[in-house]
Design brief:
- The protein has 2 helices and 35 strands.
- With 334 residues, the chain is mainly beta.
- A hairpin with a 5-residue loop joins strand 23 and strand 24.
- The longest helix has 7 residues.
- The chain is flat, with a radius of gyration of 23 Å.
- The N terminus and C terminus are likely disordered.
């Protein structure tokens, strides 16, 4: 239970106040996008405003490979860490950079640009995904295939759906069923699943009917189909729902964390968000309460900080539950 102590007048003068914002995103590459009453931009990990954006900028994404997607009007471009336009606003859609390339839509077709804004793969696709393990899923004439970084078709367009590669496996869909291919395009795990997802930490969650389990890259059922829902593995833990109860399993399928959770999220930096009695807090990998449930909402830890919602506003806490405060900002700013 949190006990509130009435502060004295001196306490009120010296007590550091939490930095709270109207909206906040996770930290990425040292910055987090925030919106405050008088502006919009990015703070650094000390809480200082590192980038204040112009009024014409309406939406921004997380930084990836030194650049962040930003929207001005109906078009998108990319800004750098100083808030300047590194790639001018010109795209109808734009995704974050991955492996040095970003999928963007120029008028009607998608292609890929490099971090200088030059076309590496000319616009020619109906849709385009991120590069992963040297390949990216693309859509043409209603079907999906894969291109390599030179823009050549590496796996012919033929699938109803296709996801990114991980562990040399990618989910594809044919005739309503899902399975996996290898980087040559050969079927490596038969198309027998109603639901299949990208590999994470050597395992992929799959679904048959209403039951979920996990397979390895050979297609072996490592954790049997038994759950009502399952999330990806993260830090050797996966959230599962069974008989109305949320818990965490290890890669062997053993339940290692059980509790009265109304909601449970993936682990990140050793902690995971859980909801208990309507409030959000964090548990550690052994299932112990690390930060007591006290927030209206909460996000994952990223670069040592997590965003949490208090009184309809957002702040940031460290792994001990301490808020990023105005005092932190003064100290960080010198």
């Amino acid at each position: 239970m949190i006990q509130f102590i009435e502060p004295t007048a001196l306490d009120l003068w010296t007590m550091p106040q939490p930095l709270l914002f109207e909206t906040a995103a996770d930290f990425s590459e040292g910055f987090a996008a925030v919106r405050w009453s008088a502006g919009f931009g990015y703070i650094d990990r000390t809480g200082n405003i590192a980038v204040e954006l112009a009024d014409t900028v309406e939406v921004v994404g997380n930084f990836s490979e030194g650049l962040a997607v930003a929207q001005a009007g109906v078009y998108y471009g990319y800004i750098n860490a100083t808030g300047d336009w590194a790639i001018p606003v010109q795209f109808r859609q734009a995704k974050a950079f991955a492996d040095g390339l970003a999928a963007v839509q120029a008028e009607r077709r998608y292609g890929y640009v490099n971090t200088r804004g030059h076309w590496e793969i000319e616009p020619q696709f109906d849709l385009a995904g991120d590069f992963s393990e040297g390949l990216a899923a693309v859509k043409q004439d209603g079907l999906y295939g894969y291109v390599n970084r030179e823009g050549a078709i590496a796996i012919p367009v033929q699938f109803r759906d296709a996801w990114r590669f991980a562990d040399q496996r990618a989910v594809i869909k044919v005739d309503g069923k899902r399975g996996y291919i290898d980087p040559t395009g050969a079927i490596s795990i038969p198309l027998t699943f109603d639901g299949a997802f990208t590999f994470a930490e050597g395992l992929a969650r799959v679904r048959q009917g209403n039951q979920w389990g996990f397979i390895d890259p050979s297609g072996t059922q490592v954790i049997p189909l038994q759950f009502d829902y399952a999330s990806d593995f993260s830090e050797q833990r996966a959230v599962v729902l069974q008989e109305g109860k949320w818990s965490y399993v290890n890669p062997q399928g053993d339940k290692v964390i059980e509790g009265q959770f109304a909601y449970a999220a993936d682990f990140s930096e050793g902690l995971a968000v859980v909801q208990i009695e309507g409030q959000y807090g964090y548990v550690d990998r052994e299932g112990k309460i690390a930060i007591a449930p006290q927030f209206q909402n909460a996000g994952p830890f990223s670069e040592g900080l997590a965003r949490v919602q208090v009184d309809q506003r957002w702040g940031f806490i460290d792994p001990t539950g301490q808020f990023l405060t105005q005092a932190t900002t003064r100290q960080g700013g010198g």
